[in-house]
Write a structure and sequence with these properties.
alpha+beta; 10 helices; rod-shaped; single chain
Length: 287
């Protein structure tokens, strides 16, 4: 019987032959996996090719952001999940080996076929047990991922503020617009005071400027009104433009509360306003 001496050269040749045989066995399996992965991605997203991930970005190597990702809550949970998987699978396989310890210890006394059968049976039992454990963990992980997904969908207080700001407008800008509108309305109102026929005062707190044209209006209208400082400004402009001012405290207060600028006076004020206008017309005729 010819016995060949095992040398380094023969070992390398054997290693090459084994690699070739393993490649022949594994290459089709790996090829099918690659084709399946590409096909699944194609059916999900279509033909997608981009060089964006290859671009150089300093943010990707930022150590601070890297530490935040490592020590984030999500990373800690994933670590706990991995530890849980290893612990459960290790415990189950250890328990199976412990329950069949006699068979494991007696493997050295069995034939090769019996040894392979026992190892195959133990491997199958450990695989099935590990699969059941992973299934249980995956169910728990499913409910956690669903909870985390729904939680991420909820808007934070800042998101609500930003959405309100985007939909309704920035409150600061809106307040400035309202202030500008008030200033413009105030200027327009003050411009109408010189055209008024009479200003009814309280005499210091309220001022109501009325205008009446019997050819164009069926009743007098309020062209300006104001309280305190605005009332003082209305009276100042009226005095500068020779507009008659009449003091009537109850009438001024009632009209300030019930009549808006640009509105005709209500019917209940007709008699009182008619007396005031008659008095104004008599003064103007004397002048």
């Amino acid at each position: 019987m010819l016995v060949e001496t095992l040398t380094i050269e023969t070992s390398i040749e054997i290693y090459k032959d084994l690699l070739m045989e393993m490649a022949v066995i594994l290459l089709p399996i790996m090829l099918v996996a690659v084709v399946a992965a590409i096909a699944a991605n194609f059916f999900q997203f279509g033909l997608l090719f981009t060089t964006e991930p290859l671009k150089f970005d300093l943010k990707k190597i930022d150590p601070i952001k890297g530490l935040k990702r490592i020590f984030s809550l999500k990373a800690i949970i994933e670590l706990l999940k991995s530890i849980l998987k290893i612990s459960f699978i290790g415990s189950v396989t250890t328990l199976i080996l412990w329950m069949n310890l006699e068979q494991v210890l007696s493997l050295s006394f069995k034939t090769a076929w019996d040894t392979l059968s026992t190892v195959g049976w133990l491997t199958g039992m450990m695989g099935i047990s590990a699969s059941v454990v992973l299934l249980f963990i995956s169910i728990l992980d499913f409910f956690y991922q669903r909870f985390d997904y729904e939680k991420n969908l909820k808007m934070s207080k800042q998101d609500i503020k930003d959405e309100h700001k985007n939909s309704e407008g920035d409150p600061i800008i809106k307040s400035r617009i309202r202030q500008r509108q008030r200033e413009m309305a105030m200027r327009r109102m003050m411009q109408e005071v010189p055209t008024a026929d009479v200003v009814i005062t309280n005499p210091t707190h309220f001022a109501i400027a009325l205008k009446y044209d019997d050819e164009l209006m069926d009743a007098p209208i309020v062209v300006a009104k104001g309280a305190d400082l605005v009332a003082q400004k209305i009276k100042l402009i009226a005095k500068e433009n020779d507009v008659v001012m009449v003091e009537n405290r109850p009438l001024a207060r009632a009209m300030f509360d019930q009549v808006e600028i640009g509105q005709r006076i209500p019917d209940e004020f007709f008699k009182a306003i008619a007396e005031v206008l008659a008095y104004v017309y008599r003064i103007k005729q004397k002048i």
